[in-house]
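Standup notes
- DV: blocked on the single-chain target, sequence here:
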Amino acid sequence: MNIAIVVSEFNDKVTSRMLEVALEKAKSLKLNVKFTCKVPGIFDMPLIIDTLLEKKEVDGVVTLGTVIKGQTKHDELIANATATRLTKLSLKHKKPVSLGITGPGIEERQAYARIRPVSERAVEAVMKISEELEKIR
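- DV (later): unblocked, structure below
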């Protein structure tokens, strides 16, 4: 299976580690990472993901990011808008897009604690959904 990984550069201390974990997990599952793309923030992911999903050699996309709570509800707006758009892209292209994005409402220490489980599950989700799609196609 060929996948792409799209990672947010915002909160890079967390997301760069998420990328490392996701690459390790993909390797352990024998998944071929065809593309690794970095975007400024999670809100910037949809255009890149739409373009990746158009490629025949990409079977699914893993997203990685964290939206740490600030002093306003901006984190909620960004996370909700992004999650909605990613779901629409997955349905449009009939390919899995995982939501490896922590938050909203998460504190920095919580984001660090979730690096490994969220990154690994995001990779596993793309693989499992793709396998299920193959069964019913």
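- Follow-up: The two ends are 16 Å apart (CA to CA).
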